Amino acid sequence: MPMRVKFREEVDRKKFFELLKTGLNSNWKNIRKKFNVPKSTFEKYKNGKLLISDDLFEKLLIYVDENKKKSIKESIENLPDNFGQIKGGKKAYVINFEKFKEGRKIRSKSGEKLNKQYRNLFKGFDLKPEVCELIGAFIGDGCFNVYKNKVYPTF
């Protein structure tokens, strides 16, 4: 599963990027080009507004002095790639708690008839995390986009 790297402290993030610059003995422009990262994205990594993907972090870490790698690795935490969606979902639930509660009441009243009709439709269906993610995306957005025979979930 793809992960994101977050520095626990701002000072550690700044230290990492300075060690990277020293290790590569180059300027930021050349470093960005070496790793094929757009300027705005790289700046967001440097200032902590965007978390670094774990694979890019490992590529960058190669150029950090061996004696400093351990302290850098101890100063980070790995978050799931979709941690923002999880955080947003939890926040939305708290903000809209009453609406969710109201929706459940409406569903329970009107759903009894539907429940009888569809009760066995999904019996024995193996509900895997990937299927749950797809269903959740559809519930959240209500549609999927298809362009030139490629499907792009809109979440």
List low-confidence stretches. none
Helical run tally: 8
Sketch the topology as an H/E string, one letter per element: EHHHEHHEHHHEE
Content-based structural category: alpha+beta
Number of strands: 5
Across the major sheet, the strand order is 2-1-3
Helix content: 55-70%
Distance between the termini: 18 Å
Query: Average pLDDT across residues?
Result: 82
- CA-based gyration radius: 22 Å
Share of β-strand residues? 5-15%
* Overall number of structural domains: 3
- What does the largest sheet look like? 3 strands, antiparallel
Shape type: elongated
Which short descriptors sum up this protein?
155 residues; three-stranded antiparallel sheet; elongated; two-stranded antiparallel ribbon; 3 domains
Q: In words, what does this structure look like?
A:
The chain has helices at about 10-25, 30-35, 40-45, 55-60, 65-75, 85-95, 95-120, 130-140; strands spanning about 5, 50-55, 75-80, 145, 150-155. With about 160 residues, the protein is of the alpha+beta class. It has 3 domains: about 5-80; about 80-125, no CATH class; about 125-155, no CATH class. The strands form 2 sheets. The chain has a 3-stranded antiparallel beta sheet. The radius of gyration is 22 Å and the shape is elongated.
